């Protein structure tokens, strides 16, 4: 059985946080341990060993603000690429509150590309290096789930799309645009085109808050001469930011979006929790949200799953950080079969 991996990334303090007089309260102790201190407990800011509200969390890997994009990719995602080429499924999630660096980790910038660009580069390179008696075909689709509706980011004019389950039990998005690709550059251009279609709205917590889950699916089909067909899928998912309405000061439409976002993250959390207590839970409810239905094979099948959780180190983000750490910590105990 493949075991999911959960990493945590602490972003640097932002200009806004420093301007508010926030102090850093989340610290990486070593490669696997992060400590979160309750700012209310310790007004003088001195770490006290007897501090009752200091809690440590253990992950497979903890990155602080000094970790490079390359290090994060190499440690979390690089090992998945070979599996996808040989016909297995893999999923990488970015999870965490709005404004904590999920999109940066997944997409990065031109100068500092993220997980998507790096894994695609490696994928096409590996195909190029593969033996000549195998033919590969790579295709991709890119969608967002916004308010529980599925939109094709490569062709938004299609409107709201629906999930269908085929005879083999694989969940597909009916009518989604699937585009063949021959290079990483091509996929990244398509990705950039799709990102311009993503639903973003300003909230008090983040001026460009992604209000949807973005799901990039890369499918690799390989045909051996005289052999059968194999298919591997790599999902790369930039989840919408978890949030408390108090923090984002959302009203009306933003508030409704927040409720949808939180509900689907809760459904994902419930599936993760059920998977991590396999012995006591016979039934895993994937049907609670579009996100969990779409990821049914990835979460419970022969898939390897990596979650990269994100937090801000600031004292003003304590509540968000605490709930993110608890959620991600639950995910750490998944065992897929």
TrEMBL record:
Gene Ontology CC: microtubule
Keyword Amino-acid biosynthesis: no
Primary localisation category: cytoplasm
GO BP, one annotated term: microtubule-based movement
Presence of keyword Cell inner membrane: no
Keyword annotations of the record: ATP-binding, Coiled coil, Cytoplasm, Cytoskeleton, Microtubule, Motor protein, Nucleotide-binding
The protein, known as: Kinesin-like protein
């Amino acid at each position: 059985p493949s075991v999911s991996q959960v990493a945590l990334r602490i972003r640097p303090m932002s200009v806004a946080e420093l301007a508010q007089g926030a102090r850093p309260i989340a610290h990486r102790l070593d490669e696997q341990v992060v400590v979160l201190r309750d700012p209310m407990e310790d007004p003088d800011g001195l770490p006290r060993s007897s501090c009752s509200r200091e809690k440590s969390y253990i992950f497979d890997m903890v990155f602080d603000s000094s970790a490079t994009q390359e290090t994060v990719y190499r440690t979390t995602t690089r090992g998945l690429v070979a599996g996808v080429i040989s016909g297995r499924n893999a999923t990488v999630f970015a999870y965490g509150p709005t404004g904590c660096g999920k999109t940066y980790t997944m997409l990065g910038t031109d100068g500092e590309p993220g997980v998507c660009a790096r894994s695609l580069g490696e994928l096409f390179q590996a195909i190029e290096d593969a033996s000549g008696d195998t033919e590969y075909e790579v295709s991709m689709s890119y969608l967002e789930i916004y308010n529980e509706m599925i939109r094709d980011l490569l062709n938004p004019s299609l409107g709201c799309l629906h999930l269908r389950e085929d005879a083999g039990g694989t969940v597909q998005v009916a009518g989604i645009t699937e585009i063949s690709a021959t290079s990483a550059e091509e996929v990244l251009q398509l990705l950039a085109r799709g990102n311009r279609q993503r639903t973003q709205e300003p909230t008090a917590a983040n001026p460009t808050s992604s209000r949807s889950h973005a799901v990039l699916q890369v499918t690799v089909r390989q045909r051996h001469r005289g052999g059968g067909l194999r298919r591997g899928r790599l999902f790369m998912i930039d989840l919408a930011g978890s949030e408390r309405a108090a923090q984002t000061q959302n009203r009306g439409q933003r508030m409704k979006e927040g409720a949808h976002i939180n509900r689907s993250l809760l459904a994902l959390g419930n599936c993760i929790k059920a998977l991590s207590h396999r012995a006591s839970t016979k039934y895993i409810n994937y049907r609670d949200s579009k996100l969990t239905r779409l990821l049914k094979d990835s979460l419970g099948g022969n898939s390897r799953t990596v979650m990269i959780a994100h937090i801000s180190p600031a004292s003003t983000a304590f509540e968000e950080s605490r709930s993110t750490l608890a959620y991600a910590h639950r995910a750490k105990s998944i065992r897929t079969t």
